[in-house]
Design goal:
Layout (H helix, E strand, L loop, with lengths): L3 H8 L10 E2 L8 H11 L7 E2 L2 E4 L16 H13 L1 H14 L22 E9 L11 E7 L2 H14 L7 H38 L8 E2 L2 H4 L19 H10 L3 E2 L3 E5 L7 H12 L5 E2 L3 E5 L6 H41 L28 H7 L6 E4 L4 H9 L10 E3 L14 H9 L4 E3 L7 E4 L1 H12 L12
Parallel strand pairs: 2-4, 3-4
Antiparallel strand pairs: 1-7, 4-5, 6-8, 8-10, 9-10, 11-14, 12-13
């Protein structure tokens, strides 16, 4: 991110993006499901009067240059909201809504099931977007920008720049900065054509994989219907390129559905071929010179970008056909033993997948009110407590001590973020009580990359006596800082 500010100055309000793969709608974000999602996931401030999203964009910057996908971008949403707030027709809608609903109590839980409208006289559209240009356009690695569409930016510009300079370099890479300008110029001049071609190639590739008689025996491109629950697809849109598929249905889905699958991000399921994601990634790289960045237990992510050509797709299709043909031959030549081993491997990858554990709770030492029904905790204190070597310990994951403490105590409390890749997000955070489900998940994992976990040492935990001391300090009455005045 060394060159973000320089790129941002040149690209402000030009390049936009949305979180990769599955995108949110850019209509007024006050529908019931939008509010639930915003309250729990993305937005730092939730209110009726202000819309202040902070979007972390990665692979979707190119969507600014597609009339279909633009509505799903952060800047597209910001522009739509500003236009809507100035529209006299919207003002009439709001007045009718206000007359019907009256005063709104932000604490009313019924609001989660209501469709709300913001006051056009008070709403301020403040959208900030971090966009990794290098992931979907033509800049060098680390080429990223910050895009701002903030009606009140003048009030925070100084603080914004200070925060940015805290996290960047005083010696930026001039080649990266130049490549950002090249990427912006390329997209301004021919972005529409490049993005349209990438979308067309992606849809054709999905159709070819899922309808090829040999490839589809072992591989499949996951569809929107498989990746997005029906409750978030009111349009009923199921897949790109199906016989009944039309542009009109796609536009309806883009306008109305809570989530839409980016067609250029193809989740290629490889579990039925007997490969986990890491193995399949290595095979494609070593044998076919095809680079894959993202993997899961039984899938890889194929990313179609503006620089791909039809010959690139033909090469991938041929590689999949060759692999499928080799599997067929191996199963025939190996006979019943090979077929049984293959079936067991597929079952382990596709059916016997460990369930991702839910968050348990924070230890009482890191909760302001341990009796509260909510789950929040002081993760910061737990994080820094782990820096004290006397406050932490290691216990082997498969040891009997783990099982004994799960049954009888004392509780196992994580000292670190533990992040397996895949799925790539924490299953433990500092201060969290480790549940039997988390231990079972960790033991069932067969991935090689687990950040925050050293198999040779074991789980890094906070010691029970350190937690007890912390709790004691919280409840012990403190002496007054000054002596009471004498009478």
């Amino acid at each position: 991110m060394a060159s973000m500010m320089q790129g941002a100055r040149a690209s402000m309000h030009r390049v936009a993006g949305v979180h990769a793969g599955v995108t949110r709608p850019s209509r007024c974000p006050m529908s019931p499901s939008c509010m639930r999602w915003r309250k729990g996931r993305r937005f730092s401030r939730i209110g009726i009067e202000y819309l202040r999203p902070l979007a972390v964009m990665t692979w979707f910057g190119f969507a600014r240059f597609s009339p279909f996908l633009r509505r799903r971008t952060a800047m597209g949403a910001a522009g739509k909201l500003r236009e809507m707030m100035r529209d006299p027709a919207y003002r009439k809608r709001y007045e009718a809504f206000k007359a019907e609903v009256g005063e709104i109590d932000p604490q009313d839980p019924k609001l989660l099931d209501a469709y709300l409208l913001p006051d056009p006289d008070q709403v301020r559209v403040r959208v900030y977007e971090a966009d990794s240009v290098h992931k979907s356009m033509s800049s060098l690695r680390q080429g990223s920008i910050i895009v701002v569409a903030d009606q009140d930016f003048h009030t925070v510009e100084a603080a914004f720049k200070e925060a940015f300079f805290t996290h960047t370099s005083t010696s930026p890479n001039l080649q990266i900065i130049a490549s950002l300008d090249v990427a912006r110029r390329q997209m301004e001049l021919e972005g529409y054509e490049l993005v349209q071609r990438a979308l067309q190639l992606a849809i054709e590739l999905r159709h070819e994989i899922n309808n090829h008689p040999l490839i589809s025996k072992y591989f499949r491109a996951a569809t929107p219907a498989e990746m997005i629950p029906a409750e978030y697809r009111p349009s009923g849109f199921a897949d790109y390129g199906m016989p009944e598929w039309t542009i009109a249905k796609t536009i309806t889905a883009l306008n109305e559905d809570e989530f839409v699958l980016d067609p250029t991000r193809i989740t290629l399921l490889c579990g039925n071929a007997g490969y986990d994601g890491t193995q399949f990634k290595a095979l494609l790289a070593s044998e076919y010179d095809i680079q894959i960045n993202k993997t899961s237990r039984n899938s890889v992510l194929v990313q179609i970008n503006i620089n791909n050509t039809r010959s690139d797709l033909a090469h991938l299709v041929k590689a999949l056909a060759d692999i499928a043909r080799a599997i067929d031959k191996r199963l025939v030549d190996g006979g019943a033993p090979e077929q049984a081993a293959f079936a067991a491997r597929v079952k382990a990858l596709v059916e016997d997948v460990p369930d991702l554990p839910d968050f348990s709770r924070f230890h009482d030492a890191f909760r302001e009110n341990p009796k509260s029904a909510t789950l929040e905790g002081d993760m910061r204190s737990a994080y820094y407590l782990a820096y004290d070597a006397a406050a932490r310990e290691y216990v082997k994951l498969n040891s009997k001590e783990i099982d004994e403490r799960l049954k009888k105590g004392p509780e196992l409390v994580s000292a670190k973020f533990v992040i397996p890749y895949p799925p790539g997000f924490p299953i433990m955070v500092p201060g969290q009580v480790i549940s039997p489900g988390i231990v079972a998940f960790m033991r069932a994992l067969d991935v090689k990359e687990i950040h925050g976990y050293n198999a040779a040492l074991g789980l890094e935990l906070l010691k029970p006596d350190a937690l007890a001391r912390l709790q004691d300090e919280k409840i012990r009455p403190h002496a007054p800082e000054t002596a009471p005045a004498t009478v």
